[in-house]
Amino acid sequence: MRTHRTSMVILAIAVAATAAGAWIGWQMRDPQPATPSPVAASSGEGRDHWRATYDPLHFKPAIDTATDAQCLACHREVLDDTVRETSPAGVRAAASKAWYQQLSTYQGAQETFHRRHLLTPMARELMNLRCNTCHQGHDPREEAPGSSATSTPQATTDFTLRKQVDVETTCLKCHGQMNAAIMGLPAPWPASKAVFGDSCLTCHAAIRTRRHQVTYLNAAAIEAAGQQNADTCYGCHGGRAWYGMSYPYPRHAWADMPADLPDWAKDRPTQSEARFQLPASARP
Ligand code: HEC
Ligand code: HEC
Ligand code: HEC
Ligand code: HEC
Ligand code: HEC
């Protein structure tokens, strides 16, 4: 009897220790490359919530090569869910347009953030965003970089405190202020566009012509649409500015570029971010 009790106790301790070991091991996950699990690759079903939350696809390096299909296996809701027709307080979505929905390019019913960037006709025409264009990893536990020796380092540009993306390296690219000062515009675009025939191409047919050569944009479609309607260009360069600042765009050399480097351009990169550069074969 006694022996039996003892062995039960030992067994219980062993079980507890194994569980704790697994739990600690989980917490201290080795940051070495982890291959995305076949389950994650095919379907989100059959995994407990905790393991799914810590799926390697949420972290470097697996997130760099994750396909949208792999993320959507568990997160279909980000593309499937649509907005309510009427808010709980009774405001009809169709009857409420925000200031950033006044550009002539805005079309269709109200949409969720993810659908506007990935699915709507304009998004598909001009852009080629992927889940990992914006999502570069996050920290489900602390919601902060630099929280421990094995977590994402503090200096990361993958995500920022309490966010799952880094807005400065993503959103700001298309939602910053138009830098009218360096363009020599006499006034902000809405007030000066008439002087330039309401076209950015009045100047940009010859200035900074090497543009949008990145994996997440459809350069040719953007030029075609911008020729028809300057709001297409302005939309990403000031027309929907969530921020008081401008994005410091890389300054690619162009034909007949003046030899003098303006002061404001001294710290600018001359190439797009490496992770977005087109493969050599796709460059014009
Ligand atoms: C195996 C299923 C699975 C896969 C694959 C998966 N996720 Fe998740 N994801 C989850 C679960 C579960 C959570 C936690 C949800 C919660 O607790 O609210 C989560 C949370 C998130 C969050 C919110 C994090 C937070 O801190 O609130 C983001 C953003 C996210 N995932 C993006 C992605 C992206 C991008 C991919 C592909 C690179 C991906 N996920 C792949 C299951 C998955
Ligand atoms: C244009 C940038 C962008 C793209 C592209 C993008 N996301 Fe997100 N995603 C965000 C932002 C911003 C949030 C909100 C983050 C926060 O609250 O800190 C978010 C939140 C989420 C969340 C948390 C739950 C929620 O809905 O708020 C999940 C899950 C998620 N994204 C999955 C995906 C998946 C899967 C894809 C690809 C199909 C994707 N995202 C593409 C920017 C993006
Ligand atoms: C590559 C360019 C690009 C990036 C990066 C980008 N956006 Fe956008 N965003 C757009 C375009 C284009 C539209 C307008 C879509 C339309 O009118 O159909 C838009 C629209 C929006 C809207 C308005 C949606 C609506 O239904 O009116 C919000 C909010 C938004 N973006 C937030 C963000 C946030 C937050 C980020 C960063 C996580 C981000 N965007 C990153 C291009 C971008
Ligand atoms: C009066 C001529 C003129 C017009 C009109 C004009 N631009 Fe510019 N733009 C410039 C000049 C000049 C520069 C800076 C060139 C350089 O790099 O030396 C510039 C630079 C830019 C840059 C890069 C900014 C940076 O920080 O590197 C963007 C983006 C841009 N223009 C977008 C637009 C858009 C969009 C429109 C129309 C809504 C527009 N421009 C209209 C002259 C113009
Ligand atoms: C969907 C959003 C979007 C639209 C529409 C758009 N741009 Fe851009 N533009 C960007 C982004 C993002 C970059 C930075 C790309 C990179 O990192 O190389 C950029 C870069 C530029 C630059 C800097 C070029 C350089 O030296 O690298 C100029 C100039 C510019 N855009 C002008 C325009 C003009 C003119 C139009 C209309 C014909 C336009 N943009 C339409 C998002 C957009």
Question: Could you explain the architecture of this structure?
Answer:
The chain contains 15 helices and no strands. The protein is an all-alpha fold and 284 residues long. The protein has a domain at 173-282. The model is unreliable at 8-42 (pLDDT under 50). It binds heme C (5 copies). One heme C is lined by residues 100-101, 105-106, 111, 113, 116-117, 120, 122, 127, 134, 165, 167, 170-171, 173-175, 216, 235-236, 240.
Helix and strand topology:
Blueprint: H1 2-27, H2 38-42, H3 49-53, H4 62-65, H5 68-75, H6 77-80, H7 113-118, H8 121-126, H9 131-134, H10 171-175, H11 180-183, H12 189-192, H13 201-204, H14 219-228, H15 230-239
Helix pairs in contact: 14-15
One heme C is lined by residues 126-127, 173-174, 200, 204, 208, 211-212, 214, 217, 222-223, 226, 232-233, 235-237, 249-252, 272-273.
Whole-number mean pLDDT = 87
Q: Into which percentage range does the β-strand content fall?
A: under 5%
Shape label: globular
The oligomerization state is single chain
Question: What small ligands are held by the chains?
Answer: heme C
The biggest sheet, with number of strands, parallel, antiparallel or mixed sense and barrel status, is: none
Helix segment tally: 15
Q: Helicity level, as a percent range?
A: 25-40%
Radius of gyration: 25 Å
**Record field, number of beta strands:** 0
Query: Based on helices, strands and strand pairing, what is the structural class?
Result: mainly alpha
**Element-level helix/strand string:** HHHHHHHHHHHHHHH
Q: Give the terminus-to-terminus CA distance.
A: 82 Å
Unreliable spans: 8-42
